[in-house]
Amino acid sequence: MKRSTYPHRSVTHRPEAPVLGKRASTACLHRCGSLCVLLVLLLAAGRPASAQATRIIFLHHSCGQNLIEQGGVREGLTALGYEFYDHGYNGDGLRLADGSYTGTNFDVPGDNTDPDGFAAIFAQSLHDPPDNTFSYLMQYDVIAFKSCYPVSNVADDYQLNEYKSYYLSIRDRMDQYPDKVFVIVTQPPQVPAESDPEEAARARAFANWLQSDEYLAGHPNVFVFDFFGYLADDGNFLRPDYRVDEYDAHPNERANRDVGPLFVEFIDQIFSSIRAGEPLPTIPPPPPELPTRSPSSVAPPTARLIDDFESTTDHWETGTDGMGSTVECGPDTGMAYDGVASLRIHYNIVPDGWVDCGRSFESPQDWSGGAGISLFLRSDGTPQLVTLMLFSGDTDEPTPFEVEFEITSESALGWGQIGFPWESFARAEWADEGGPSELDPTRVTGYGFSLGADETSSEGTLWVDDLHISPGAAPPLSIPVATPTSAPAAPGEEPVEEPVEGSVEEEEPEEPEGGLCPFSAIALPLGCLAVLLAGLRRRSGRARARRANGGR
Fold first, then answer.
1. What is the pLDDT of residues 369-407, one digit of tens each?
2. Residue 238 to residues 6, 244, 297, 356, 364: CA-CA distances in angstroms?
3. Domains in the chain, ordered, with CATH?
4. For the whole prediction, is pTM greater than 0.70?
């Protein structure tokens, strides 16, 4: 069970894109024979000579996207001559072979990629022109699809058999299209905090069944890539060295770097064997499991993504001033910068009051692989002072470090990205004696947000998404300052910026009148720090003093 360890200081989706107008058995690998030769002829005949590249579509959610981006899947398949397309949540939609988003989607019913969701998709009629998910998928030569890690929460044998029945119906439909290649990607395993050994064993049994002769024999155009098997440890949970943290089952960047090339190799070997009329490929052996790192530093060592807030796990803790202020903190699927969920903080703060929302880790995490952190923010337009807190040092008595910024009414216009180098975090004045004097990013024990400490009452909502480690070996001594416009750019538009060279310590720019500093995808993640911090210097001093007097 989880324990509430967030160190309180209390006294007691983005809009959806519009809809568009085998692993073979390790014991016995099935030979292609004449059917595979026919398959090659059909694939070649289905397109003009100018478009001979095999077209692959991969239907997935966030774990699939991380595999593609961190595992080099698109680059690897493109280098081998394939055209690789993918489709995530409906809100993201279809990505072309060059990786660009089309702004359209396949209208996946309910965004459901669980076994019942795929069964519903494969039960749809085939229409030309396409007007449903199945019809869109069938425009491609190879159809790969994957469920996400919640499918590994197999509650009982009844649910396991239900999953099998769904995939038997899917197989029946795949049999109707021998000119297509279907690649089932098994679901990722869960983490121990979100499952139990019995569920994990059933999850392994489901993945093994999909690879068995019972399922694959006699179905030469169906293949299974064992994503589960590559990621799971002997206990059928996500390998410790592949975890982001104890509650998040998204495989980390190391996992995706290990498995991505194997997925590329598997796809390529399918077609290499088909073209040569040889036996189907044996999936490459899994990467060796390295010794588990000491609990003193468990983290994605080079992973940039810290939290995408897609998990619905309730690991968020709250704290208040004890004077009547209230706060609600947790995942929200109604608003997201990326994916389908973000962290929502709804607050009602009395004058001079404050509220906290945060989480802690059972073991320190190493975040030292970059210059600092960046995140996306949006609000309902309520002006508010926000403190981003990082806790470092000992897990039982962590030391808080903080940096403050202000959101204004313009932040309701869209998402904005802000970034902070490690050196901008100052030890909190309300911290207990002892502990480190400077933030140690190699031992982060938790993080959170604090709002309030103003002379007036306030009520509003703040959303946070995609907390990342910012790239770079060390923060620059002089940070280019991007002065924001009077209002953030709308999502998808390039913000207008006037670069100003200056140091955070030396410059004293005017307090910005806009909302969050807006960034495009190629903007420096640390660029607006100087504007935010310098403009808040006067207010922050008053707020810190008021918080210290309030018992923090």
1. 778 888 888 998 888 889 999 999 888 889 999 999 888
2. 24, 10, 17, 31, 19
3. 34-276 (3.40.50.1110), 305-549 (2.60.120.430)
4. no
